[in-house]
Amino acid sequence: MALESTDAAAAGTLTFGGDLEVRRLGFGAMRITGDGIWGPPDDREEAKAVLRRAVDLGVDFIDTANSYGPDVSEELIAEALHPYPGGLMIATKGGLTRSGPGQWTPDCRPESLREACEGSLRRLRLERIDVYQLHTVDPNVPFEESVGALIELRDEGKIAHIGLSNVNTEQLARAREMIPIVSVQNRFSLEGRSSEPVLQECEIQGIVFIPWFPLGAGSLSADGPIARVAEAHDASPFQVAIAWLLARSPVMLPIPGTSSVEHLEENVAAASLRLAQEEFEALAALGAE
Questions:
Q1: Active-site annotation holds for 132
Q2: Which of 23, 134, 219, 222 could covalently link to 8 via disulfide, CB atoms 3.0 to 4.6 Å apart?
Q3: What's the total number of domains in the chain?
Q4: Mean pLDDT, to the nearest integer, of 251-266?
Q5: List 16, 27, 38, 68, catalytic entry
Q6: pLDDT tens, residue by residue, 10-50
Q7: Each residue of 228-237: pLDDT tens digit?
Q8: What is the rounded (10 degree) CA torsion for 251, 257, 262, 268?
Q9: Residue 254: inside a domain
């Protein structure tokens, strides 16, 4: 890692809902759990050290979910960071249930979402969650009922703002007819851009776009344009992937996750990597459809 700065502040800032400003490089707390995002990590103290180091490096946005573990990620965040430093924003999600490692089942019934949210409040030791996200769209539950449950929780003061995850443009529009939506978290990376239409709509509406799986896979480690750009900046391919996301849109908030302090520091250092326009365009061409 040869980049000069290791500070999330180098990424700049954006704002959720007009009132919650955060730095534009966050931390995704999914991988601090056990294998298959199931159970506790092998080294609980190392997981907490990663969280503390993220805050030390200027990260002020942490994304989690009740299904990560389940419960484990939220519990570790509270153990490591509570009482929370001023300005730290923790976003969480509800709507997926777990039956084992790698198993994810939608459950977005209103009663289930309420139970999930109230459980997150207890585990995170919060009176109100700044951004609470519907983790998925449940094909067995009317979408408006799921969104309506989050509106009720907001009206009760249990959440401040509502976000969505794994939605398309039509679902985003339907939700926005009911309530302001401050963020969308969809899969998006240098190599996987099927959510491009959703990102474009977020840009138009001023909605924060949080790409999950932001580092992608495949050609990140292969010879080619990514490797050449990385070599030119004395950076890693993963740092180039993060820098490209930051350059792609001012509403983009990457949340690379890791269970390693070393990898965390590498990811945060990418906030200071600036791509030349020709580099950005060469990388963008990789995902052209």
A1: no
A2: 23
A3: 1
A4: 96
A5: 68
A6: 999 999 999 999 999 999 999 999 999 999 999 999 999 99
A7: 999 999 999 9
A8: 10
A9: yes
CA distances 86 to 17, 29, 141, 221, Å, are 18, 19, 38, 38
DSSP-derived secondary structure for the chain: ---S---GGGG-EEEETTTEEEES--EETTTTSSGGGBS--S-HHHHHHHHHHHHHTT--EEE--TTTBTTHHHHHHHHHHPSPPTT-EEEEEESEE-SSTT--EE---HHHHHHHHHHHHHHHT-SSEEEEEE-S--TTS-HHHHHHHHHHHHHTTSEEEEEEES--HHHHHHHHHHS-EEEEEEE--SS--TTHHHHHHHHHHT-EEEEESTT--GGGGSSSHHHHHHHHTT--HHHHHHHHHHHH-TTB------S-HHHHHHHHHGGG----HHHHHHHHGGG--
Residue 272 lies in a domain: yes
In a domain, 107, yes or no: yes
C-alpha of 265 from chain center:
17
Find where tokens 């709509």 sit: 201
Cβ count near 171 (within 10 Å): 17
Identify the CA nearest to 71 among candidates 94, 45, 42.
94
Give the percent of the chain with pLDDT over 70.
94
Q: What is the pLDDT of residues 98-155, one digit of tens each?
A: 999 999 999 999 999 999 999 999 999 999 999 999 999 999 999 999 999 999 999 9
- Note whether residue 171 is domain-resident: yes
User: Residue 167's domain spans which residues?
Assistant: 21-287
Task: Tell me the sheet residues that pair with 223.
Answer: none
Rg from Cα positions in the chain: 18
Residue 113, classified by CB atoms within 10 Å of its CB into exposed (0-12), middle (13-18) or buried (19+), is: buried
